[in-house]
Amino acid sequence: MSDPFHNLKDSIKKDFDGFSFSEERKNAVKAAIQKKQSHLELHNWKVETLKNILDSLQDEAKHGYEISTQLFQKNELSFKSNEGQLYILLHLLENKKIITSKWMKDRKYYSLTSKGKKYVASYEHQGSKQQVSLKHLIEEVSL
Fold it and tell me: How far is C-alpha 17 from the chain's CA centre?
């Protein structure tokens, strides 16, 4: 069976032969895309959602499904229609070193870092000021 795109592939190879972007340019484009995506997505999270996620990781490492289950048990329904959004938030928190992850037995387990534990401790001790601390965390993660 012949490849119907053979001529197109050859044409692209000829037109773009030797054409490449520098690593600096590639990184700049990636950074711009990540900044735009994280900025748009994180402003939709509620402070209570973030608090519940961090609380669920306080005692032990958990995989995404366990975190999701605990959130549903707490009547946190932010991820009900799109559970994939939870993983986006976990990834963004990991990028800011609030949480860390480790693969074990084909599952990715998340746990708090020392920085994440400081956030949990700060909002537990601040009482009414916890909203400010977690809003700051949401802003920090979105950068």
Answer: 36
